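[step 3/7] fold_predict: job queued, chain A
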Amino acid sequence: MALNRDEGPWGNAGGVIKNKKTYFAILAHINEEALAAQVRNIRHFNPDAGIIVYNGGTDAEFAQQLNILRFPGSHPIRYGNLTPYFWETMKWLEESHVQYDYLINLDHDVLFVKPGFQDCLDELMEDYDVMGWDMVTSFSPSDTNLSCCRDMWREWERWSLFFKTDYFVRYLNSTQVYRHGIVRRMLEAADHPAVEDRIGNSNVFALEEMFFVTYALSLGARIREYPREENWESAARFGHRQISLEEARWVKRQPYYYWIHPVKEAWLIQLNEQLIGRKNM
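[step 4/7] structure written:
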């Protein structure tokens, strides 16, 4: 899948994907103003990183007016299974011969609170291939209350044959980090039509939280969790309760915390102005 040179301007590259140490992939489909604020935030705190936006909705015009690199094969992504978007992004980067160290999956409701994330990755990922937030290792249906894990156990007979393991690992979807080497290994090992059929026909809600890390682990990846502070849920959590200004301030003071989730739409825009403008922060 080649990049159309008319798609997604990126600096003066004429639509050609540049080699970057870090690439952020964002799945979005609503509220261009919020997406624009998120992109400004990422560029402000991670100026050397690349950003790829995947349009997961039905509006083909979404994000066309923004100065961002847009994934050219975007198509609607089914709610509850975001796996195809990140898998296709991995494939596209590899087919385009892009060199990078880290590929990071970002939700549309993530903001950075300070610079230094890439240096932090170099430290935390020195001996690892994969990192994610809130790691859960599940060996049986009874050892976790997470609904996504219970869903995986309902389909485990078919997934265990693919992973060739008797357990799986789960991360929060957003901010999963993959080194280029393990991404290449995952793509090379895959029977792509079979993998994509298995992904597309799964009824596991939030399959993406378990698929990538468990597949990487099955191929020998060294995996870890982001460091956990006592109040780690002040940085990232599930549900609709957004990160507050006070929590963002707390995150900013922590040595290994650089981003917050969830921060949505109007609040994302407002909070970002405080973060990059240093108002009340």
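[step 5/7] annotate
Confidence is low (pLDDT under 50) at residues 1-14.
The longest strand covers residues 22-28.
exit 0
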